Amino acid sequence: MPKVKKAVFVVAGFGTRFLPMTKAVPKEMMPIIDKPIIQYLVEEAVEAGITEIIFVTGRGKNAIENHFDKNYELEATLVEKGKHTLLDNVEKISKLANFAYVRQPVQKGDGHALLCAKPFVDLPEPVLVIFPDYIMPKSNGTLKKMVQFYEETGEPVIGTDFVPESEVSKYGILAFEDTVNSEIVKVTDFVEKPKTQDAPSNLINNGYAIITQDIWDLLSSAESTVSDGEIRVADAFINLIHSGKHLYALKSVKHGYDCGNPLGFLKATVDFALDREEFNGDFKDFLKSRV
Predict the structure, then answer these.
(1) Which CATH number covers residue 235?
(2) Domains in the chain: how many in total?
(3) CB 45 within 8 A of CB 147
């Protein structure tokens, strides 16, 4: 199978759940300690073998482009002040991958945003797609496992997370069967925000996917036939399944963080801080004092 070398990061959304903060700052640039959310995901993608990254952006997202570009003035200042560790951390960002940017001119759904990147994809090459609300624990090895599965089978695969039963009504829930192994299952349907008693599982799509030409074709077909309303990636997945083709999902080993909402973002910040030695003393003591 061809290697997965290209990724599309869809970062065109308004981030309304974090207003007024996101009126001027993209939600993807909100920091978990000293690194923006988007950088954690880019670094994991690069570790999984990605060498080219296309960002689908929108108005007000220039900070993302600036972050992954060089900053000669800042770097010169760090050299002058002898701050070599900080210099290394800054310089490596622009070297992570080859970056390109395309805008979604009008917000017509996540599928439409993804289609904005299609001219930069050499079909039928496989593409890793990231909607960067979710951060999974690095120990899960989520993106590496997804890439490995595709390169072994040639089949599209999505990432998942599990949520408590009390929260299934907030998400699109996966129905699945035929466990391939301890972590891979075959998806049979998506159920959008079901009632608790109607949910087929507690697995949600975490916004990660490796897609094939079939998905691009379904999205393009939707674009040509839908004059009004949104073009949704989930609909393309559902149509793929209903056409008799396969879609697989990687089950999460450890629960991730929905950084698209304030509570998930706060949980990620606390857990990431406690995993770092410099915060594991005073910060932990502070938390204990508050609870």
Answers:
(1) 3.90.550.10
(2) 1
(3) no
